[in-house]
Amino acid sequence: MNLAAISVPILVVQGPEATEPRAAELAELSGATAFEPAGDARDPRAWRLRGATRREGVAAWCDARRLDHAWIREDRRFNDLKLLAIDMDSTLITMECIEEMGGYLDMKAEIAAITAQAMRGEIDYPASLRKRVALLAGLDEDVLQDVYDEKLRLSPGAEQLVERCKRHGIKLLLVSGGFTFFTERLKERLGLDETLSNVLEIDNGKLSGRVLGTIVDADAKAAKFRHMAQRLGATRAQSVAIGDGANDLKMMAEAGTSVAWRAKPIVRTKATCALDYAGLDGVINLFS
Length: 288
What we know:
Layout: H1 3-6, E1 10-14, H2 20-30, E2 34-37, E3 46-50, H3 58-64, E4 68-72, E5 83-87, H4 88-92, H5 97-103, H6 108-119, H7 125-134, H8 142-151, H9 158-167, E6 171-179, H10 180-190, E7 194-203, E8 206-212, H11 218-232, E9 239-243, H12 249-254, E10 257-261, H13 265-268, E11 273-275, H14 282-285
Parallel strand pairs: 5-6, 5-9, 6-7, 9-10, 10-11
Antiparallel strand pairs: 1-3, 1-4, 2-3, 7-8
Helix pairs in contact: 5-6, 6-7
């Protein structure tokens, strides 16, 4: 292994606007010695820039052009991974399930405001979840199926990322501060390996406004990730965690590569990289 090459990370740039001319511009700005397609060579929207030594100005240049960028070690390989964990609400899927449920009681905005506070790390997650679930007391349980059937959509690139992980034998963990009703259906639909989420109490066909058992918070997510990695014999470098909110940060800190997906500022600053424009399949492009 060429340790000198590893010491100079590869610059990966991607997104719908990542054209070859823009890759060439960025190569000049960053001092890269070469660039090559990182995605589908027939229609590349991801590029690897090698030998880039100038970081100053790269982030601002990319943001101005709606491009994601990441500095990644040369020796990271996608097919070496053993574990990929992903948050559910606003990450694997495009919405917050609890907010959509609240819409049936005209409480979507109120619940969304509490969710936003929790995702920014401004309030305790378990307390925020109990407060939001309490607002759903009396909601008919059939609404859960309506939300799944009518509202739930996978994030762009989600199916491609899952398919590539399964092709390479990478185990998939779905972790969520949301609810088992949705995680278990997604597990079956996508062929995921394991899930972790909260259980809603239902009484006579209606939500009681309570959560059963211990709430899945940041510590629970991190512990599940850590234990699964240990079972798989996965080193830190062989793991990836993807999330968007403050309650994902401890799990993301356990991973060799952490990806902030359309994330809050507090998450973006602590992650290995952020994806704001590329799809979830952009995670694949981070690796050689």
